[in-house]
Design brief:
heterodimer; A: 359 residues; alpha/beta; D-Maltodextrin-Binding Protein, domain 2; 2 domains; 4-stranded mixed β-sheet; 13 helices; 4 strands; 7% strand; B: 301 residues; Rossmann fold; Alpha-Beta Plaits; 6-stranded mixed β-sheet; 4-stranded antiparallel β-sheet; 27% strand; membrane (chain A); transmembrane (chain A); ABC2_TM_bact-type (chain A); ABC2_TM (chain A)
Chain lengths: 359, 301
């Protein structure tokens, strides 16, 4: 026990004095969080489209009277009495559309320059007009059955990018530190003969491996804490769902699975250069195919199929389920089961290939 | 005197290379034993087999009455090993390094700090191992090997790549360690080191031990002539012939005049009478000559 503690301590001190490793395990993934959060976060918050109301447009005014806030997020309406100027503004792109009403006819002017914006705005305006028609129809002939459309976003329950980026990038960070940590310790300790020296001390192999395991788990928890704290800042706005704490066992089991990969990499690599190359070769494809950077659902079909062989997929999915999708604690079990089996198999192979020193 | 180490006909091959080819020796308790030989002679492999780091193909090793292979936890606290290269935990300070190794053996921090003082590194206690000089790192490595007060100490080329002053300091330390009653086994490719430190030396080449004896006996057994040299140019050709007459061979490289003789008294007296002792050097045979005699080739470390 004592030698286990002193080995853990030696490893931990070594880790916290290793600025490069700290950067790659803590800051580097956070940088991705900031960058991706900014890229994707900016894109989803579309500004309300600018619409010029020429003269009085009854359909709009009635709607605004009934519910002043209803249109606020969708349209930014300015009034104008100068039709030519309004059209000019649309044509030059300063406004997305202009709208005018002559009795029963509503005319929408739009420019094809920004088709997306024009499409959105004309769609909204048409919807308002149809709604007015419907109200009028209901008033004229009460009891006429009408079809109402209600929309509700289901695919991700408002999964803002930060919601999937946080578990995804956390998974990536944990896989990196798990694989690199174990592989590098093993290889550099073997290269520098620290392992042989330890072998000559009355220390069990269990204490050596245990110290590495404890270190990896602790580091994974620190990574999780830092990630959640940063992502919860108002700037990112992560909102966790009820059973988010179930992500803790996910993080721990995931870290162990990747530690097993790291031990395998460390066992087959002779130099730290080849170990870090091999580790990168494993982690980068895993990160791209497992939904760490992009949601899996946005991936091409073949890539989604590939992801089933990636342990990172199961870690990411498990964390997504409990952290942001609001699923119950039991939801993680199938994914964790896969990780456990994976970790045991790879860990077993790694112990078979383990060498104290390179002959 | 009891036997600490008994090695019987140990052999180890890597493919076609016979790294260790039938090595046998015994080391008595309290002895300072040296294994001397050029690089690639098989010293380190022999030492690693004795330490229990490698398994021999055939032959037996007994350390303090026990077998070191397979890994023998009963034996480990009784032996201290300094490996070739320093084998430290990365980024730890000298003190942390010793404390860590100490606690692996159940040794408290106080003893570890004493070791730091013994090897003269108290001032460097807070320095990270990567920042230590070669000599300091070697001394720390030796301190790590001694921290649990082992009966038997193995040192693999402890002074390799050190500057002359650092080597001298380390020799004092090694002598001190031996004087406390510990058995010390050292490999080296420095002849002078083996000659100065070791009670007995095994000369090794091509995986075989050529001869084992005290350095003095090895040199004496050689019955080699003495070499007397003085500054060249002080003696006329006639003087040289007269001094060397019948007792010495002469070699003159233009700067140094060397008489090789089995009768050093006569040569020295004649040189003194001629008052040409400027730059005098008298050298008996060294282990280098022994090596030359045993292998038929110059010693090249």
């Amino acid at each position: 026990m004592k030698s286990y503690l002193s080995l853990s301590r030696a490893m931990l001190i070594g880790l916290f004095r290793d600025k490069t490793t700290l950067f790659f395990t803590l800051l580097f993934p956070l940088m991705f969080l900031v960058i991706f959060g900014a890229i994707f976060g900016g894109g989803s918050d579309t500004k309300p489209g600018k619409v010029i109301e020429i003269g009085d447009v009854a359909v709009l005014d009635n709607m605004a009277k009934a519910d002043p806030d209803a249109l606020k997020d969708l349209l930014e309406i300015t009034k104008s009495s100068d039709e030519a100027d309004a059209k000019q503004q649309v044509a030059s792109g300063d406004a997305a559309a202009a709208i005018k009403q002559d009795g029963q006819t509503v005319t929408i002017y739009y420019s094809a320059a920004d088709r997306t914006q024009a499409g959105i705005v004309t769609g909204i305006l048409s919807g308002i007009v149809e709604n007015t028609n419907l109200e009028m129809l209901k008033a004229a002939a009460p009891g006429t059955p009408t079809i109402a459309v209600t929309t509700d976003q289901v695919e991700d329950k408002a999964l803002k990018p930060i919601q999937y980026l946080t578990p995804g990038l956390l998974g990536w960070a944990i896989s990196m530190s798990g694989v690199f940590g174990a592989a590098m310790t093993l290889v550099t300790w073997r290269q520098k003969k620290t392992l042989r020296r330890i072998r000559l001390a009355p220390v069990s192999v269990g204490a050596v491996v245990g110290a590495r395991v404890g270190n990896t788990l602790l580091l994974a928890l620190i990574q999780m804490t830092v990630f959640l704290l940063v992502a919860s800042l108002p700037f990112f706005g992560l909102t966790l769902t009820a059973f988010w704490w179930m992500a803790i066992p996910c993080v721990l089991i995931g870290a162990l699975a990747f530690l097993a990969i790291g031990l395998l990499v460390g066992a087959v690599s002779k130099t730290s250069e080849s170990a870090s190359g091999l580790a990168n070769l494993i982690i980068l494809p895993l990160a791209f195919t497992s939904g760490s950077f992009f949601p899996l659902s946005q991936m091409p079909d073949w890539m989604q199929k590939i992801s089933y062989v990636s342990p990172l997929r199961y870690l990411n999915e498990a964390m997504l389920d409990v952290m942001v999708r609001g699923e119950g604690p039991a939801a993680v079990l199938p994914n964790l089961g896969v990780l456990v089996v994976f970790g045991i198999v790879v860990g077993f192979i790694a112990t078979r290939l383990f060498r104290w020193d390179d002959v | 005197m009891s036997v600490s180490i008994r090695v019987t006909d140990v052999r180890k091959s890597y493919g076609d290379v016979r790294a260790v080819d039938g090595v046998s020796f015994e080391v008595n308790s309290g002895e300072f034993f040296g294994i001397l030989g050029p690089n690639g002679a098989g010293k380190t492999t022999t030492l690693e087999i004795v330490e229990g780091l490698r398994q021999s193909d055939t032959g037996g090793v007994e350390l303090l009455g026990e077998s070191p292979w397979p890994r023998n936890p009963k034996l480990l606290p009784r032996i201290g090993v300094q490996l070739q290269g320093t084998a430290f935990f990365e980024r730890l300070t000298a003190r942390e390094q010793l404390h860590t190794f100490g606690s692996l053996y159940g040794v408290g921090p106080k003893r570890a700090d004493e070791m730091l003082e013994l090897v003269g590194l108290t001032e460097k206690a807070g320095t990270r191992v990567e920042k230590l000089s070669g000599g300091q790192a070697q001394r720390l490595s030796i301190a790590c090997a001694l921290v649990h007060d082992p009966e038997l100490v193995f040192l693999d080329e402890p002074t390799a790549a050190l500057d002359p002053q650092a080597r001298r300091n380390l020799w004092d330390l090694l002598r001190a360690i031996n004087e406390t009653g510990r058995t010390v086994v050292l490999t080296t490719h420095y002849m002078d080191e083996a000659e100065l430190l070791c009670d007995r030396v095994a000369i090794m080449d091509h995986g075989k031990i050529l001869k084992i004896d005290t350095p003095a006996a090895l040199v004496r057994g050689l019955d080699a002539p003495t070499r007397i040299s003085v500054d060249s140019g002080n003696l006329s050709a006639a003087d040289v012939t007269r001094v060397a007459d019948g007792v010495a061979e002469v070699a003159d490289d233009g700067a140094i005049l060397t008489f090789t003789t089995r009768d050093p008294s006569t040569v020295l007296t004649a040189l003194a009478e001629a008052r040409v002792l400027n730059g005098l050097q008298v050298r008996g045979a060294t282990l280098e000559d022994v090596f030359l005699e045993l292998t038929g080739r110059e010693y090249r470390a």
